[in-house]
Specification:
The structure holds 2 protein chains of 2 kinds. Chain A is α+β, with helices and mostly antiparallel strands. In chain A, 30% of the residues lie in helices and 42% in strands. Chain A contains 3 helices and 7 strands; from the N terminus they run E-H-E-E-E-H-E-E-H-E. By secondary structure, chain B is an alpha+beta fold. Chain B has helices at 26-32, 47-57, and strands at 18-23, 36-41, 69-72, 89-92. The chains are: A alpha+beta, B alpha+beta.
């Protein structure tokens, strides 16, 4: 089982993702039969909880509590991989400003079959949203 | 004075209040206009006591039913864990990653 986690300043570019994936066993492990990839992008319309209405964004500012955020992501990836029997989990998350349309989160799960990869992906994201010390702050368009 | 079964003096007997500094982030940081808060607690408090004291002394945070947890030295701790004066304490609430 292989786990790779990285927190990147700003949006997650293709080169950063390639560089991390190149170190993963996802493609080289002979047991791999399914690779599921999720990417989170900053959407233009977000609900402003203070005004209880939808507003346009220009960006999200991500704040991380370092090094706990990285440690929690690693722990979560290992626990998820073990629980679902997957081969590899790669996680990239942004820190700092990410503009609308840019990527702030990438998760790649490799496993022998699709079911465990899909289940692991859902489980990981659900726990990420309550267990990892990362916060986003909206930058409103107006 | 003999220590209690929990390993510290019984509350209110010979224990002095101490001020603990707690790191805060995200919405909590915005609400207080700072990246840290100070909270007065009994000497050698548990994580649950620190959380309760924060909630009481900083009502602007609106922590009730928020699922807030305490991290000590970059790890979540159980409510009964004791917090030492030199520990790095952080309030983990309203997280929103992903």
């Amino acid at each position: 089982m292989s786990v790779l986690v990285q927190i990147i300043d700003g949006p997650i570019g293709a080169e950063a993702e390639r560089s991390v994936l190149a170190r993963s066993t996802a493609m080289t492990d002979d047991r791999t039969g399914a690779i599921v990839r999720f990417e989170g992008i900053v959407r233009r319309i977000e609900t402003d909880m203070t005004e209880a209405r939808e507003r346009a964004l220009t960006a999200l500012d991500y704040e991380t509590y370092d090094p706990m955020a990285l440690l929690q992501l690693e722990r979560l990836a290992r626990e998820t991989a073990t629980a679902h029997g997957v081969i590899s989990i790669v996680v990239l998350h942004s820190r700092g400003r990410v503009r609308v349309g840019e990527r702030s989160f990438v998760l790649v799960v490799a496993s022998p079959h699709r079911k465990e990869a899909l289940a692991a992906m859902h489980a990981f994201i659900d726990r990420l949203k309550v267990e990892v010390p990362i916060w986003k702050r909206p930058v409103w368009a107006s | 004075m003999p220590a209690s079964v929990e390993g510290r003096a019984p509350a209110g007997i010979g224990s002095c209040p101490v001020t603990l500094e707690v790191r805060i982030f995200g919405a909590a940081s915005l609400r207080l206009g700072s990246d840290r808060l100070r909270v007065e607690v009994a000497e050698r408090p548990t994580a649950a006591e620190v959380l309760a004291a924060i909630s009481l002394q900083h009502p602007a945070l609106r922590l009730a039913d928020s699922g807030a947890r305490l991290a000590v030295n970059c790890d979540f701790v159980a409510p009964e864990t004791f917090v030492a004066p030199h520990d790095e304490v952080a309030l983990i609430a309203f997280v929103s990653g992903g």
